[in-house]
Amino acid sequence: MKNKQIIALAISLTFVANMTFALELKVEERINKALSGVKKEILVENKDSIKINSEKEAKEAKE
Known about the structure:
By secondary structure, this protein is an all-alpha fold. The protein is built from 1 helix and no strands.
């Protein structure tokens, strides 16, 4: 290969590597957003169940 072809190939491979890395970051960002939504739902469910349990315990204590 000529030097110019080697340089062009190196530039192309660098571009492909950068695009792959950028796609990985976007995918990771989407996964993190989805997981944070799931975590929030779990926290809300836990708070609700704690509230329900404490209300049940209060009713049982009255009886």
